[in-house]
Description:
The complex is a heterodimer.
Chain A: E1 2-6, H1 13-21, E2 26-29, H2 39-48, E3 53-57, H3 69-79, E4 85-89, H4 92-97, E5 106-108, H5 119-154, H6 160-175, H7 184-211
Parallel strand pairs in A: 1-2, 1-3, 3-4, 4-5
Helix pairs in contact in A: 2-3, 5-6, 6-7
Chain B: H1 10-20, H2 24-37, E1 42-48, E2 53-58, H3 65-72, H4 101-106, E3 107-115, E4 120-126, H5 129-132, E5 142-145, H6 150-153, H7 160-169, E6 174-182, H8 188-201, E7 211-215, H9 221-224, E8 236-242, E9 247-254, H10 263-269, H11 274-280, E10 285-290, E11 307-313, H12 320-326, H13 338-341, E12 343-348, E13 351-353, H14 369-375, E14 394-400, H15 420-454, H16 456-484, H17 486-539, H18 541-563, H19 568-591, E15 604-607, H20 608-622, E16 628-633, E17 638-641, H21 643-663, E18 670-678, E19 681-688, H22 695-698, H23 725-735, E20 739-741, H24 744-747, E21 752-758
Helix pairs in contact in B: 2-8, 16-17, 17-21, 18-19, 19-20, 20-21, 21-23
Amino acid sequence: MKIGYLDDEYDILKSAARSLKKYDIEIVALEDIADVTDISLLVDSILFNSLECLLVDYDLMNLESKVYGTQIIKDVNELLPDFTCFLLTNFTEQGINEKIVQKVFVQDKSIFAEDDDSQEFVNFVHKIKNSIECFKKRLEVTKVEYENLFAKKREKQMTASEEERFIYLYKILSAYDLVDKMPETLIRNSTQDTLEDMLEALKAFKQQLRKD
Amino acid sequence: MARIPFNVSAKTARLIGRENVSNLEGALIELIKNTYDADAKKCVVYYENSSNRLFIIDNGTGMSKDVIADHWMTIGNSAKRDRVYTEAGRVNTGEKGIGRFALDRISEKCKMLTVSSQERFEWLVNWESFDSSELITDTFAELNDSTETIPQYLWDIDNKYLEKLLESDFSGTGTCFILENLRDQWNDVLIERVKNSIQKLLPPMENNVFDLFFYLWDTRTEDAKIVSNLLNEYDYKLHFAVNDFGECHIQIHRNEFYFGTQFERIMKKAMFSDEDRDYFNDKLITITGSIHDFLPGVEEEIHIGAFSGDIYFYKLVLQSDNQERYYYKNFMTKRTNYKELSGIKIYRDDFLVRPYGIYGTTGYDWLDLSTRKAESPAAVSHKSGSWRVQANQICGQIRISRLNDNLPDKSSREGIVETQEFRLFRELIINFIEKLEEDRQYVIRKLDDLHKSTAQGEQALRIAKEELDKYKTQEEKGRKEQNRNQTKGNEKETNSSEEKYQYENFQKAITYQEERIQDLQEEMGLLRTLATTGIVVNTYIHEIKALTTQLNVGVKEAYACLEEDNDMSAAKDELKKLRILKDKFNSWFKVTLDAVEMDKRKRKKENVGKIIEKSISKWKSVQNNKINYQFTEHEAIDIRCFPFDFETIVSNLVTNSSTIFKNHKVDNPLIEIEIGRLGEKFYIKYSDNGPGLCDAFKKEPQKILKYGVTDRRNANGEVIGTGMGLWIVNNIVQNYKGQIDLKKNIEKESGFYIDIIFEGREN
């Protein structure tokens, strides 16, 4: 299991990685993201690393793009609705009171100071694992939708909005190896077809007009 | 393909109606609203004891056959939903199309006669048939043509006074309901309850265009007319109006004081302004501004829509000594009668929205004024505290039209939907009330000062001190004389020994009192510093807890390096990192706990510049030098003071600036502090390069010195600041006979500026 970690200071990273490793969870620090407010960049990184969950610190004010973690989670979930993000904070009341992140996903950062076999830490690990399982399950459900769209694509019966959805699903599912990887052009070529069809139609329409 | 229509069981339809009209009062209100929407000028509710029948009669436009069939008989279909105005130009009050179920709530059987300009019909329904029919489409009401007028239809009523009224005013168009087999026991208690409820239904206005009557079998017409309680006597009246563009207009009537023949003397002695003279003579105080001016810290666009209101303040208890001291007017109204009248009610197009402001309900104090009062219990004469009204001391009404869809009603009709707009609407009303509070406190503080300067107690203390000084001088003189003339002096000593004893006791008493006052002042200073520690910890809780977590996780990791990896060098590296935390922790202890250490709680001669410099250095360390400080000492200030007072001033100002820097992501944050002398007085000029005060405080920066005033909000726009920091600073400055000048904040576009001028003994 691979989870991401976004913070403005990675002073607890080493210890957190050690503790989570004991439960087969690998932690990936997203230190290379220059602008955390560029959510597409962050989402790309999530997909590129095949992350299944994300820990985000509440106070990211030391980063160049000063922002609160609650905002990041809200934005990530707009692009990846099923993806679980935990808000790590030193003062849970603050994160909970804002009511942007559900209480159950607001986690006191001091959890990493607990013993690895303590009940508190074990509960936290269970929460992470459970949300990863849910995420995977939802991906499987999504895969059915993807396959239907794929069938339509082959029959060239896909509308423009369906194609948008198809590309989006492909991007997510391929990141988690749930579908076979395809070349970029192959994914996009129905758009090409649609455009060409439209041009053809326009051409015919023009000719008809001239005739009339 | 067969198409089958949906249907609904009659029972369910009835249940839906009942859910929406839960109690008898609610049902009656719905039916009265209908008469208003029918442009009736008069509406009568009549309960006849002998026949146990209830009549609801109006002289409105009546209903045509089409309206009865298409709207009245079609559940959930209201002609009013799309038609906002009635023919006479009233705004329709109902729109849900379920008002007719109110009839079911009241009685089992219902007869209606409706007379419109073209047609007359009698409509009969037995609500019990809804139980026996399976489907709503199998349930019927009878509709018969009629030739009768309303007085003819109601020929058998007992009340002769009502009969006369019907003859004179109800012979034209209108609608009347006769409700039989009533579901409630109409005893005296219920009748009183219904009457009370109807009384509150209409807003207190002198020129109501809609008259409401409640008759029993023997009630005379003059007694039957419902007159809403109107408060003619009040201490303060606040009128406000907000338009669709968010422009607010407030008028305050200062009606509490009467100076009589002493008017000129008091105006002069209490130093009231020329404007104040007019305000005491019934000129209205006018305040205007945008909605943002009244909602500090709210930056996004606000759409609350138009509304207006009148709020009255009225003291419940009138203490005779206060009446003398503050020149209160003596009103004739019994103050104990005020209870039922109190509360701020909301009227939607002239009809009450329950339960706001209704005494004895949970919605009575919907503005939560009691909590506000408990948080700031200062007396109105308190020098620096913010006096707040009690919930039961004010009454009034807020008028919102149905046209204002920013504040929609709940579908249950029990209140307004609690949206973000409603939250801001509530806050806005409270801030309007604050204007009234400010004015009252302004007047009473001046009158209190005047009283103190002329009060008997103060005068007595001054005379006593003068006497004591005189005695001391005489005694000194006597002692010198005694040395010159030993014999004569012996005689005199015998004479004055009792007098001396008395004067010494007198001196002891005064010294004791003065020491006690000084002790209390010291105690207050300590409490202020502790409060500041609380504010600092509250503001920086995130940072402080982050340090603790860092320390604990570091120790855990070092232990794991040894235990799991047997890597001594890695463990050492981890522990080395933790040593840096030691300094950070120490800095926090210095700016919080050290502030109250024993040494700083003693008044002594200190260099204020040094105290400030030390304080800056502690803050720099806590803030990891992320904020630049520029300190300039134009002239040294060496005065007798409590060191923690000046530390507290710096801590509060720095905490505010630091929060602003963080929230507004200020690049290169800078705090400048200058100190020096200004004639006999001293100054501390503090400024930062943040965005400055928010718009609401920019016009009246002095407001930020008041208790509980804050613009700190969380991401949801909820107020989270304590509003204590600058109030504490102001209190300290007052102890040094000082003043705070915030005028620069009006002139400058950005940055926060505070100039503190104060006095102090140099020896």
